[in-house]
């Protein structure tokens, strides 16, 4: 009984701190990462009671419900996810979180629906360009993915780490040239032509390119966002990064830094910080206080709306 009471206290503490949709989603994500699948599923359900989620959020809820042993609710959330546009068939088929659904009579029809939606969405794709961009994305992220491992193994100031940095810089230069060729020929290629992952590859490479490249191509990214072909978060991150590199206040509060001596995080200067959440919402971003929790930074500026 004491253990049950303690669990209820933990769950209620999460609930009391969650005041809005975004906070319930954040808590659900956190609980999932901690392996607390029942609590995670309940947090997602509380979020959806406040407002509708997107395809990925319902998919994550399906995973939590499946891992918690509730295949009925997992199936319902998965169907909603598909209705809202989930078409990543390969991920769906190999996702071990959903293994408990594989023997249900609903599983095959769900796969068939996703396959049909995927085929419809990709009917006008430029597949050679899609494959090229997805390979660029893989190359861009692979070295970044092992940076901490290299640093931990050899030390921050080691010759091995310096060699790794050289390889990294060389690869970035080659990928930038490849992306520039693509942009000059095709423009900022949108999701309807190559899909989300391939479209994101352009952003990944240009966001850490030299400032002149970012300034040259950001107008193309903005036009793509306005056409619904790229993510608003990509535009916000690049705009903020350009401003930060020019020592000017950022707009959306996406750029943070760490003090290497204290280990504390801080936010680069934001213009009119009392209106930052209004600007973030206009481009599809959640509240800055939720975003900064990823870096253990507390946001205390009261928000206003014009």
Structure description:
- The protein is mainly alpha-helical.
- It has 2 domains: 2-121, Serine Threonine Protein Phosphatase 5, Tetratricopeptide repeat (Alpha Horseshoe); 127-295, no CATH class.
- It is 67% helix and 2% strand.
- The protein has 16 helices and 2 strands.
- It has helices at 2-17, 21-33, 37-50, 55-68, 71-83, 89-94, 107-121, 127-145, 147-154, 159-186, 191-194, 196-207, 211-226, 232-245, 276-282, 288-292, and strands spanning 256-258, 265-267.
- The longest helix is centred in the middle third of the chain and has 28 residues, at 159-186.
Task: Please describe the topology of this protein.
Blueprint: H1 2-17, H2 21-33, H3 37-50, H4 55-68, H5 71-83, H6 89-94, H7 107-121, H8 127-145, H9 147-154, H10 159-186, H11 191-194, H12 196-207, H13 211-226, H14 232-245, E1 256-258, E2 265-267, H15 276-282, H16 288-292
Antiparallel strand pairs: 1-2
Helix pairs in contact: 2-3, 2-4, 3-4, 4-5, 5-7, 8-10, 8-12, 9-10, 12-14, 13-14
